[in-house]
Every structure is written in structure tokens, then in C-alpha cells.
Amino acid sequence: MAAIRPAVHPSATIDQRVRQLGRTIRWAPAPLWGTSTSEHARYAVYLAGSILGWTLAGLAIAAVVGRALGLLG
Fold this sequence. Notes:
Elements: H1 14-27, H2 37-72
């Protein structure tokens, strides 16, 4: 009698997960201002998160560039 085995799927690599996250962020629709209070709150949270995210990304890039320039000179 043959043993029944579950399908084994290899786990996604970090590279695949980062690419999927990038696709999700790129194609996710941004919330609109809307008419209800919940839509306004969702938009405000999205806007604050976006500002925070871009600020942190800019600081990280500035740190990398600063460190690279520090190594050169």
C-alpha cells in the first residue's frame, strides 16, 4: 500500500518575498478622501504612513550615501 503524502511546497526566498511586497505596494489602490468619517480616517492614516515611510527611506539612503562618502575621503 502506497503512503499518501501531502504536497510539499518550498518556502519563498527573501528575494521572492521582497518582490511580492513591492508588487503589492505598487499596485494597491490608494484610499480616496471619500465622504464618511471612516474613509477620512483611513486616508489620514495612509497619508501619515506614506510620509513616515518616505522619510525613513530618505534617511536610510542619506545614511548609506554618507557612509560611502566617508569611506572615500
